[in-house]
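assembly run, all chains below
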Amino acid sequence: MAEQALSAPVPATRPKVAASRRSATFLPRLLTGLAILLTWEIVVRALAPAYVAKPSTVLLAIPHVIVDRAFLQPLGATLWAVTEGLAITIVAGTLIGLWMGRSDAFDRMIRVYVNFFNAMPMIVVLPLFSLWFGYSSGTRIATIIFAAIFAITMNVADGARSVPREYLEVARSFRASKMSVLTGIVLPASMPYLLAGFRLAAGRALIGAVVAEFFISQGGIGYYILYNSRSYHHNEAFVGVLLLAGFGVGFELLVNWATRRFMPWYRRDEKTN
Amino acid sequence: MVPFSETLVRLWQLVVRGDFVRQFADSSELFLTGFVLALIVGAPLGLLLARVRALRIGIEPYLMTLYATPMVALIPFILSIMGFGFAPKVLVVFLFTVFPVLYNTVEGARSIKPELLEVAKSYRSSEWALWREVMLPYTLPYMMTGVRQAIGRALVGMIAAEFFLSSTGLGQLIMGASQDFDTAGVFASILVIGLLGVGLTRLGLMIEQHFAKWRQ
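ok done. output:
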């Protein structure tokens, strides 16, 4: 469907080859990384004002930032909000998605709206949410949920729709109840789609949280970055960005790992946006 | 909350007053500049990375990191270094857009069957012909997947830039309405941007599917 793309055939590499290749790639990667950092350092030193973040000063800032309460508290607040928002999103999004996938009538009713919201750049609702929920953490949660839920719903609906017909027919022949068809067949069959949706949703939730904090100045990692870069503490602010990048990559790795671990039969589909 | 009828009336007012057309033109300029720049940089660089293996191996992990990084977090830095103006906003749209294009192009070019390149080489194909006849046609569908993803992101980048950098375009339309507690105006703008999003996503899908015929 909308987010689905064809994936390229990946040639199977024998583990031995893969292992030797891994050690062969490490050195060039390290060298490139160092080259990037060096270029950055030189360019900033030569051209930019002193407050602009450069690798050496960011590195120096890391030790005192990561023990600073002014950093840890917002970090916790953002992470908690994202976790809470994602939990709500997964439950609600999956339920709606399953319903959409299994009921044509319901699907026809709401698909066009789900598509509408999914395609809308989610940050446009911020001014509206800030009017409704005020300058509180409620706005942040609402933004996170709004940013993430449609990705999950769309993917789960696609997944629930793609359950092989034979499975359902067999279940019907054995007079399985509707509930056990749902939990025993449809849900497991949609899991890979749910995971792909989660990967998308997690990234969007993170963006939603950061943007909401920018917008309503709610204490969190996004506001920490905004506040510090406004007061020309770019190095401190950049530590926050590094952390966000870490989360982004972390979610990606987590989903890849979970797909391989729990659904080894399912080849990773390109479902990013 | 406001009734839907009021939203439509407000939308009509905005269109008639000409606000809407002007802001839309502003936003389009920003969107297109950033997007085209990202394509010009992303696509050739992606092919180059795929062709030069050493370069690809070195850069790939960093590319993936940047692809997964929420780019909005860079907006405050861009603001305090580059200030207000058109250039920083273009940079924001560019940053949102370039990585999907680059990432998908590399993925696509990497999956070119070695046989194709070998045959071309055996027939003493020049490097230029190899790019034009083998690499580009093969990679195009993947690149277009990147373009589709990039369209959605560019829209987010555009609005984010208009919210947090100098306020112009459709972003300003929303911000202005919300500061005046003009909920109908906010709704009207959101409706328009939502429809724009749907239209652009459709367009992206059409482009992607058009080129996907090529892909086996």
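Residues 7 and 269 of chain A are 6 Å apart (CA to CA).

Chain A touches chain B through 59 residues (CB under 8 Å).

not gonna interpret more than that til we talk
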